[in-house]
Design goal:
alpha/beta
């Protein structure tokens, strides 16, 4: 991951499962984040009130003060700090409630740590915490991808992308060499996921592959039933 994004980013982690909490602390710190772990909502709220945090990861089922209540308290102090909810509850009503409290994302347990890392990176990029010289375009092997202008350039030629093609390629670029789940792409691009949208996604992936065919070091690998990896061979 780009250290221009992770460097000096302080994360408040509220998680009452101590084993999961320590695992996440170790994982995030290994990726250059600064992390403080709190095991109940009340102590996390007090810590946020006294400290400086750039990102919050909140379990929903916390003692003393649940994650939704904690997010509301955090929003009173800072309307813009990114918030991700972690929860074992996957009910639609819970997700809606989470987003209504101002959450930027919602991840259902169990989850893959790399997925969490990709989501944090994407949110930080949207929040403007990336290097300003890099945030507007991506280098993909021999290509330069400019999502704002919907172009993919290779030498003196430029391929104009559709909005959906650009959005899908953006998601893959943000997690280059890491798995991006099919459902996450469909929800992000289409707003929902089902069989027919999945078929459309397959068509879009095929088109994007054709745009990248002139660089053999670049490939989009399909992981059956799970998702895609944009791979750049060294």
């Amino acid at each position: 991951m780009n250290n221009n994004i992770t460097g000096n980013i302080r994360i408040l982690l509220a998680e009452d499962d101590i084993n999961l909490g320590f695992l996440l602390v170790d994982f995030l710190e290994s990726n250059a984040f600064e992390v403080k772990l709190y095991r109940d909502g009340l102590s996390a709220a007090r810590a946020f009130d006294k400290g400086r945090y750039d990102f919050c990861i909140l379990d929903v089922m916390l003692p003393e003060m649940n994650g939704f209540e904690l997010a509301e308290e955090i929003r009173k102090r800072d309307k813009n700090v990114p918030v991700i909810f972690l929860t074992a509850r996957s009910m639609k009503e819970d997700k809606i409630k989470g987003f209504r409290t101002g959450a930027d994302d919602y991840i259902t347990k169990p989850f893959d740590e790399e997925e969490l890392l990709c989501r944090i990176e994407a949110i930080l990029s949207r929040a403007g915490k990336a290097d300003p010289d890099d945030e507007d375009r991506y280098r993909i092997g021999r290509y330069i991808f400019d999502p704002l202008n919907l172009t993919l350039k290779h030498g003196n030629t430029a391929q104009r992308l559709t909005i959906k093609e650009s959005r899908i390629l953006c998601l893959l670029c943000r997690c280059k060499n890491k798995l991006v789940k099919r459902d996450d792409i469909m929800v992000d691009v289409w707003g929902e996921s089902d069989y027919y949208i999945g078929r459309s996604l397959d068509v879009f992936i095929s088109k994007i592959r054709s745009y990248l065919k002139d660089d053999p070091a670049i490939q989009i690998t399909t992981i059956p039933t799970r998702g895609y990896i944009l791979e750049e061979k060294q």
